[in-house]
Backbone:
């Protein structure tokens, strides 16, 4: 009888120790998962700030380019013998300058604010793509790049606009950096949106450029942290990783597409419940560098 009591006591102690170890492991795992979530959020924030820093110099340069010709026209218009035509030209130039600068400022502020818990979790894809282009600071046309947005108006995706804008800014910057290292002719960035057939609304966005493309040896790791080409000494190596995290958080994804002749990335996003058009309208091909179709 005493032997049985000893066995029972040993089993109780073992069970208690097992429960304690299990509880400790569960607490450790929970703490580790919380830390992973926190680090992921920090990574997104750090990359967002890096994106802002990357465009800051281009922004200052571009705004200076906008202001310089306007200032010259205003000085001509202020002369006592200035003609009414000169004054009118100065006013038109000033109006265009203010509008353009306000557009850039609005895009940068939207990117800088980031997402918030009470922010609407839907994005107008065409408007967000245009904001991202403005947030680049330097117009793509100045690098001889034609941009074509083949996106139907009022097409909305179930993702925060600030998150989608950050994704676009990263992809557009990568496309520009790749194309300016190649031939000056034929530079084109195309963003096309289409809807998949099915009961659950799904949108596909093809982001295609005419740069050198993604090397085969990098295709398996391009979305991993700190993966970047050897020629890119200024990048953080986090841009595409953050793009993937933002899209996955919204129930979407990003992958390498199969079009040849340049980089091709395919974004999949759930359509917003109030999404408008059933399919993307093809934009009229741009006839001059930098013109934004759509």
Residues:
């Amino acid at each position: 009888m005493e032997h049985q009591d000893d066995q029972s006591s040993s089993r109780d102690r073992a069970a208690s120790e097992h429960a304690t170890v299990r509880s400790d492991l569960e607490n450790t795992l929970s703490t580790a998962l919380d830390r992973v979530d926190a680090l992921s959020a920090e990574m997104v924030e750090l990359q967002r700030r890096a994106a802002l820093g990357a465009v800051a110099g281009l922004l200052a340069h571009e705004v200076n380019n906008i202001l310089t010709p306007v200032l010259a026209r205003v000085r001509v218009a202020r002369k006592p013998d200035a003609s009414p035509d000169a004054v009118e030209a100065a006013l038109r130039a000033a109006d265009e300058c203010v509008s353009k600068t306000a557009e850039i400022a609005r895009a940068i502020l939207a990117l800088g604010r980031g997402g918030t818990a009470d922010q609407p979790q839907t994005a107008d894809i065409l408007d967000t793509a245009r904001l991202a282009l403005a947030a680049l600071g330097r117009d793509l046309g100045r690098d001889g790049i034609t941009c074509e947005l083949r996106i139907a108006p009022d097409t909305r995706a179930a993702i925060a606009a600030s998150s989608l804008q950050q994704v676009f800014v990263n992809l557009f910057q990568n496309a520009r950096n790749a194309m300016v290292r190649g031939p000056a002719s034929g530079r084109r960035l195309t963003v096309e949106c289409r809807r998949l057939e099915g009961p659950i609304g799904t949108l596909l966005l093809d982001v295609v450029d005419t740069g050198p493309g993604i090397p085969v040896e990098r295709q398996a790791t391009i979305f991993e942290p700190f993966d970047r080409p050897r020629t890119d000494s200024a990048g953080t190596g986090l841009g595409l990783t953050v793009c993937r995290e933002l899209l996955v958080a919204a129930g979407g994804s990003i992958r390498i597409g199969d079009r040849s002749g340049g980089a091709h990335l395919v974004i999949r996003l759930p359509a917003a419940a109030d999404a408008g058009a059933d399919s993307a309208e093809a934009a009229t091909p741009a006839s001059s560098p930098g013109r934004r179709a759509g």
User: Anything to note?
Assistant: The longest helix spans residues 2-77.
